Amino acid sequence: MRNRLSIIFSLLILVYPLLGIMKSIANPVRQYIEIDRADLKLLIGEKIYNQPGDGCWSCHGAEGMKVDATNSNTSKKNKNIADLRDPTTWTSYKIITKYSGESEMLSQRDISLSLVRLGAEDWNQELAPAIKKYTGSNVIFFDEQMIGIHSKLLKKNTRSMSRNLKREKVKFKGKDIMDIMATSVFFYIENKFIGKK
């Protein structure tokens, strides 16, 4: 019995570091800080999603589907806009469909959340090359009109959300506010639109 226990213990010592290595290899898509309170996440997400000007709703609409085209420029712009109610129309789904057979590192949720956090331009520059290197395949890039939380009101939103979180006595670090905003917007999208076709 003692022999078996020492063998099991030895195997655990050998396997445990490998699990850590596999974990780090299997997750190149970034981790983002989020708050625990669902009610507050929904409130923050809804506010940022429905922001006047160039908030998410300006392209995806209040119901999560393409806004009706009013002129030829808008019509051309709208042809690439995903229906948020149907994740199979999202570019992140195309990426998963193409690469998930080769790797478990990609999840559609992680890719979509990273897009909301970074916007297409930064995602294309920072994460697409990492995925390409890992999979050895060409990567599908996002349309750069997708700005995520990086609207022209980003600074105002950052200050406003910081004040709201302090008022609600939520502990957070200033450097995490962008993550909190992005995870809240994505939480709102998950709860408001997905599966509601």
Core attributes:
0% strand, 58% helix, 197 residues, globular, single chain, 8 helices, mainly alpha, disordered N terminus
What does this structure look like?
- This protein is an all-alpha fold and 197 residues long.
- It has one domain.
- It has eight helices and no strands.
- The chain has helices at residues 2-25, 38-49, 57-60, 72-78, 91-99, 108-135, 154-167, 177-192.
- The chain is globular, with a radius of gyration of 20 Å.
- The N and C termini lie far apart (59 Å).
- Residues 1-26 have low confidence and may be disordered.
- Radius of gyration from the alpha-carbon trace, in angstroms: 20 Å
Shape: globular
Spans where pLDDT lies below 50 across 5 or more residues: 1-26
Structural category: mainly alpha
Short overview:
With 197 residues, the chain is mainly α. The protein has helices at 2-25, 38-49, 57-60, 72-78, 91-99, 108-135, 154-167, 177-192. The longest helix is centred in the middle third of the chain and has 28 residues, at 108-135.
